[in-house]
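User: Can you predict the 3D structure for this chain?
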Amino acid sequence: MQGSGGVSLFALAFAKVLGARVIATTSSAAKAARLAELGADEVVDYRATPDWSQEVRELTGGRGADRVVDVAGLLEESLRAVRTAGHVACVGFVSGAAPPIDPRVLFSSGATVRAVAVGSRAQFLAMNRAVEVNRLRPVIDRVFTFDDAPAAYRHYASRRAFGKVVITI
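Assistant: Here is the predicted structure, written as structure tokens:
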């Protein structure tokens, strides 16, 4: 999984509930430590290791990750990190301009790429049951009042947040 936003941290929590080994990426040692506290088995600092997909392959004995949760829009790197015939869930896009994808990377991975936006009502209810049964709680970075919403958006855009940024009404 990529990053330390709310979607990524729930992906980490769900993966751990299912008994998965989780390799996370982040941009700082402080965030890496927090990801490890939340259960990440390995953390790759993508600033210190720009070729993070290769590091994921090394951490998996050359095999690659079974599943990659791509929240940043780094699809080509995700395809390089995933195992042959693995799965990439493309959940978001926060990395700026979308670089073109080399079709050779797509074909060589043999991966299934699925864009994930909003699930069905049944999936939502199942997710909520899993949250309740496993007592999962969102990681909240900061809470802002509605009047301070511009500051909340600036904080989120700064990429310093760890978890959800909340605006109360």
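The chain has a mean pLDDT of 92. The chain has seven helices and seven strands.
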